[in-house]
Each structure stands twice: as C-alpha cells, then as structure tokens.
Amino acid sequence: EEIEISLAPSVHNYYLSHEPTQRFWKMEYSCNIMKVWKTAFYVQIGETKLPVHYYFLPLTPFSHKYNYYSYVKNDAEIFIDSNGAWNFSLHNVSGETERIWLYYDCKGVPFDNGLCQFLHDCRKQDGVIRYYVVSDKRQKKYIPDIGKKVEFGSRAHKRLMMKAEKIVTAYIENSNIFPFESSEYEKYANWFHFETIYLQHGVLHINMPWKYSPERIIADRIVVSARFETELFIKNGYAEKDLWKVKMPRFDELPRTSKGLKKIVYAPSWRAYLVGENVNNQWELLTNKYLASNFFKGMEELICSKKLHELLVHYDYQLDIKLHPIFAEYGDLFEINSDNIHLVDEILEEEYSLFITDFSSYMFDFIYMNIPVLSYIPDFDELRCGMNGYRDVDFLNKVKENEVAKSSEEIVDKIRNFFETGQGMNYTVDFYLNHENQLSKDIIYKRLMWEH
User: Among 106, 72, 107, which Cα is nearest to 87's?
Assistant: First the structure.
C-alpha cells in the first residue's frame, strides 16, 4: 500500500540564521508495528520517483560512521536494511530492568525546577531509582540523606546515562545534559533510551523556532505555565498532547501575594552579544566589550542616578540589585553611593513590592504573585535588531512601546509613578491553574509515572 505524506516547512529553514534562508521540508510518519512491519520512502516529482538517502544527526540512534542501523526502545526494534527500508518488530526484553531517572538544573544555578521536582519525587517508594545530577556545589545543601546524587561529568554519570529511563531537566541544552563531548554524541547515541521531560527554568515568552522546536531540542514532553507558551510550542512543531499545562514546580513555592515591604528588586538578564564561547557550561566574559556597551552604561546610570537616590530616601524604599549569574562577577564594577541600594546574591520574591527587569522570564514569577513589573532596556535598539539572538518577545508585542524605559531618566520616572500609583507595566498573563489547588509537583510526578 502506498500513501502520500504531506510536507511542512522545517525549522532547518533557519540555516545558520535567525531568518529563513532556504527551504527544508519535514514530514512525520507513525505506525502500529503490530500491523506494519516494513516501510520505505521515496520522493516523487512529477512522474519521476527519486530514492531517499539518509543523513543522521549526531544524537539520532543511527549512524553511518559506527554502523548503527538497528535500535531497540520500549519493546520495539527498528532496523534499516541495505535497501534503505525500515523494518519493525517486537523485541521482548527478558528480565526486570532498573528504572533510573536523572534530574538536572545547571551550573551557576543553586536551585531550580529540576531540584524542586527531585526533592518531591525522591521520597516516593515506587520502584524508581532517582539521582540528582550535581552541576553546582551549592545544590548539594538541599539534597536530603535519602536523596541520591551524582556529579555531572563523572564516570558514574556516564554509566547512568546509558541506563536512564527518563531525564527530568530545567535546562534543555545538550551540553547541560550529556556528560560527553559533542564529538562523542554519535558514538553513544545508540545506547540512549530515555525520554526527556523539560520542566523549563522560566516561562518561554520569546519566539525562537531555531531553538525551541522538536527538531532542535531533545524534549519529548514540556511543562508549560501560560497559554501563550502553548501557542508558541505548537507554532514551532510540538503536538499539544506533549505539552503539560500544569505550571513549573517552582510556582508551588510562590505565594500568590507579596508581603508588600518597601523593597524593589532590579534583575536584568544577560546578553548573548557580550559573551564569547561557552566551554564546559562556562561563558567566556568579554569585559572590555561589556564595559563599552549600552547595556552596562544604562545599568550604571540608573544605579548612580541622583534622582533615584532622592526618590528612594523620600519614599523610604530599598533597591536590591541581582545580577544574572553569567554577569555576577561584574558586581564590583558598580560604585554604589547610597545606603538604599544593595547588590545581593539571593532574594525572597515575596518581600518585594516592585520588580524591574529588561525582558528576563524571571518577571513571570512576580506577575504570578501579582507584584507590579517594570521593563528597562537601555540597549533597546540592539535587542530589536536581533543582536541578542531574538527580537520577537511576547510582552513587547502586547504593551505600548512607551511603557518600556530605554534610558535611566525614563525608568526613574516610571519608578516615581509606581510610588504614586502602585502601578507597573500594563501586561497580564493567562497562567494555567491546577484543579482543586493541586501542586504542580504532584501532577508532574503522576504523569512521569504513568505517561509514556
């Protein structure tokens, strides 16, 4: 039986670019191997039939280099024969196998959704052996005696990757998950059999099809917190059934209201155009470029603003500044001459009455808590022309441009307006609400156990 398979534009249209540069088509095919045991593909143009030749990416379980032409997963075996046809059969796995799950956050982050979910799941007596993959030494203090842990990149980590049934992670980059060099992916890919659940580390509010699509990331299931996230992932190729609309685990820990203390926190994001290469999950810092940037100059002008200092004293407010972990070591570059302004390493979100950022997804924690938010983007032109790698940001598409401050004078005026009115930026988010106040961690745990 011959069937025609429809084609759709592929994310590979964004070849070495954040704009489409050519046409790559994609197709999807699924079958019941109880009924279909063999299939082959060909391309027809007019009356001409063309054979299909395969090129396998490094993380696929098939490889010309290593002669990997068969793969077994979930009792199914796939074999590519010498004619390029795909053969399917049932594969009975004898004996009981260990159920091993690995949980991740990333280097530079002491606590995020991976650890939050692990602390919930590791106490379950359900036959699953769970490990938290430690990539930052600060993560260790949260892990109880009952919790198993393994050092990222260790030999034990590599062995566990070969056995893992599930990867549960807050960060989806390959270098954050695989304890191998990228040049070795093809060598080991045939041994990987895990399903990847992407908890996310923030709300995805930026349209980046060249990254967040099933053709680019290894996420099989994705936890989404807001309606526009679902729309973005579906737009970029994910099936709605693979999107878990339950909110990130971290949201379980957030109260829905602030304590209303006279405190403001300013937490800008990082900038891809102000760093060099990423080696072993560590970004190369380009200090001279950073110091010459409108991004740094804009922060410095705000921190040193005499008008801001006077406002803080007059209204008796404190301003905490939390730099992004990638730029944290630049804190010493700022000269703070006010008793009302402080650089901090950690914060308690509920203590603040106002959150200031640029376009960091951290803003959604505060929006979720009904805390007013302001946006200050001193390098607005650089962002809008795509220097940071993207320019299609949800809130920038929905608020009036004059609501975004582009200079220190503008953001100080907006802070003054907050003091007078208690209002922030006019931006609302349709978060998913769990039925009967169920915890996200509970719902995610149940789906991890029973959904495949």
Answer: 72
Indicate if the pLDDT at residue 452 is higher than 60: no
Whether the CA torsion 281, 287, 288, 289 is positive or negative: it is positive
Relative to beta strand 263-266, strand 318-321 is parallel
Reduce the DSSP state of residue 216 to 3 states and report it: coil
CA distance 171 to 168: 9
Inform me whether the pLDDT recorded for 94 exceeds 70. no
At what angle are helices 306-315 and 408-421 packed, to 10 degrees?
Answer: 10
- At 152, the amino acid letter reads F
Continuous segment of H or E residues that includes residue 283: strand 282-285
Residue type, 73: K
Q: CA-to-CA distance for 91 and 88, rounded, in angstroms? A: 9
Encode burial over 43-82: b for 16+ CB neighbours within 10 A, e otherwise.
eeeeeeeeeeeeebeeeebbbeeeebbbbeeeeeebebee
Query: Among 407, 357, 354, which Cα is nearest to 380's?
Result: 407
| Backbone CA torsion sign across 417, 344, 108, 250 | negative
Residues 41, 63: Cα–Cα separation, whole Å: 18
- How far apart (Å, rounded) are the C-alpha atoms in residues 444 and 246? 8
Angle between helices 408-421 and 294-303 (to 10 degrees): 50
Q: Using the CB atoms, write b or e for 385-407: b if 16+ within 10 Å.
A: eeebebeebbbbeeeeeebbbbb
Structure tokens at 391: 């320019």
The token duo for 111 is 């606590």
Give all strands (DSSP E) within 358-435, no chain letters. 373-376, 404-405
Under DSSP, is residue 119 helix (H, G, I), strand (E, B) or coil? helix
pLDDT in tens, 322-360: 999 899 889 989 989 899 999 998 889 999 999 999 999
Our CA dihedral for 367, 370, 374, 375, rounded to 10 degrees, sits at: 0
- CA dihedral of residues 118, 230, 365, 418 (deg, nearest 10): 180
pTM for this structure? 0.90
> Residue 300 is encoded by which pair of tokens?
């410095």
